[in-house]
Amino acid sequence: MGMDIKTPAKAGTMESNDIYVIVQPNDEGGIIIELESIVMKQFGKKIKEVILETLEALNIKNIHLSAKDRGALDYTIKARVETAVKRGM
Amino acid sequence: MKNILGREIPEYIEGYGTVKAFKGAFASLREVERKAVKLQSAEPTEKKVLSSIKDAIEKCTIKDGMTVSFHHHLRNGDYVLNMVLEELSKTGIKDIRVAASSIFPVHAPLVEHMKSGMVTGICANYMSGPVAEAISRGELKYPAIMHTHGGRARAIESGDISIDIAFIAAPTCDTYGNINGVEGKSACGTLGYAVPDAMYAEKVVAITDNLIPYPACPIEITQEYIDFVVEVESIGDPNGIVSGTTQITKDPVGLKIAKMTSEVIEASGLLKKGFSFQTGAGGTSLAVADYVKKLMQQKDIKGSFAAGGITGYMVEMFEEGLFESLFDVQCFDLKAVESYRENKRHQNMSASMYGNPHNKGAVVNNLDVMILGATEIDTAFNANVTTGSNGMIMGGSGGHSDTAAGAKLAIVVTQLVKGRLPIVVDDVTTVTTPGETIDVLVTERGIAVNPKRQDLIEKLEKTKLPIMSIEELKQIAEKMTGTPEKIEAEDQLVAVIEYRDGTVIDTVKKI
User: Which residues of chain A make contact with B481, given a CB cutoff of 8 A?
Assistant: First the structure.
């Protein structure tokens, strides 16, 4: 049984090289990711992969996550997603 | 066909003509000719002042297909280009080419004139904002032509660009067309980029918001080139014309790059009596200047000149006696404007004197050290300052290629990764400046020297600086970011990148 988001929460900033992540409960079930990124064309797929992997590692099955990426590296993405999720649990 | 850098370019481009392929930075130096200028000689009693831009346009006998030119000393505060195009649009003229030395966000109304078919061609040395984006989306009928600052002067002198009417934004102008840039509410300092336009256009119109009685000494652009003078309420927004004082970066990464760069300069052996130097106005470039300043003070070195678009920071070094003179094509801030007005050794230079490869020697040839930026640099040291990594036009050479070609030591300074994008890549999206003219790349993670500069490698290897190959720097960058996916550009060509000698170094495709 996976953990769920109970309350909306956020982590990160809109600064360059950071990513701003907002998580919300998803009553419909499943994982919804909305991503905006300044490097969408070059790294959009990779960023989504990192977000999904992070959610998987945290055992999250139902979530609505929106992210505004300003060129964050993978470890920043992981950290922001994890923080937002833990704040929302 | 492919040019010497392996870039695929067409042999003929509609709206541009036959393509001359780039053959190397100095391959075109030879005997050249300047074009002859057709002009209407003045009767002794003729008056030049007209009551409106509309009158000036009528007097200049406009026709479809002509080229009108503008200069960019009013930068993002410029009203003149928009005012003139607005008047032109009322005449129903079409198919005109706008030859502007640079285009800024303030020139957004030009996009509508592109869509209406009035403007079908654009030449510029630099462009950012809505016009650049519209061109990248393919909204201009013919590909834009991107020049360098020196290359534009060359193109005008040779007749590659034939200007029918030049419009000169004149901060102060007298009733007989003498112009100075140091007085009036829109004072912007030197007018170097407008000089070739004034000398080679068939008709020249001065547009001023400070019309004064004859003569407007100290004169920078003189009466024998000017057909008409028009007074308007305002030629520009002072807040956009000159920036406030640009600050030295406080970013530790930028400061580290700057310090290492100053150590490269010191190790090169060029930092001695008579030293000459140019740098841009960005925060990291100014930080380099600051470290160089400290070295010059410590070692009691007096330089010969600093050049470029001059900032208040260079003025401070000059006033402190670290340089004998300043060469200035465009003042970047109020302090530079004031210095240029007050100090005789703060010398103006035209765009041709600054960087034209086809004259008898430009100021760039006298430069020891040039500090440059880059959006991307590839493992052959080719630099891109024209497009972003996504292929969108967001800049242009300006003086980048000119100074790189002329300076004894051309250094690109940049962070290794910006907003997740690796800056060192296998192939730059667009070549602006050929790698053969770039000597050193300084990043926070290491310094790469162009292999053709073995002399420099030997000198730098004696220091403790982190010297490595550019391929190693590329690997470090990609390890941090991952490998970016290739961006698919469409086939439609939206811009032709001319090297300073008029050969085509690259093209930009629609995105």
Answer: 43, 73
CATH code for the domain of A82? 3.30.230.10
Residue A42 to residue B390, Cβ atoms within 8 A? yes
C-alpha B414/C-alpha B430 separation (Å) is 17
> What's the pLDDT tens digit per position in B93-131?
999 999 999 999 999 999 999 999 999 999 999 999 999
Convert B187-212 to b/e letters by CB count within 10 Å (16 or more is b).
bbbbbbbbbbbbbbbbbbbbbbbbbe
- Taking CA–CA distances from A37, the nearest residue in chain B reads B419
Of A41, A45, A74, nearest to B390 by CB-CB distance is A41
This prediction has a pTM of 0.95
What distance in Å separates residue A3's CA from the closest CA in chain B? 30
Residues of A in contact with B389 (CB under 8 A): 39, 42
Domain boundaries, chain B: 47-241, 252-488
Q: Does domain B47-241 have CATH number 3.40.1080.10?
A: yes
Q: Please write the tens of the pLDDT for every residue from B160-176.
A: 999 999 999 999 999 99
pLDDT in tens, A19-62: 999 999 998 999 999 999 999 999 999 999 999 999 999 999 99
Report yes or no: B81 and B100 within 8 Å, Cβ to Cβ. yes
Contact A52, A20 (CB under 8 A): no
Q: Note whether A41 contacts B482, CB cutoff 8 Å.
A: no
- The pLDDT, as a whole number, for residue B247 is 79
DSSP three-state, residue B230:
strand
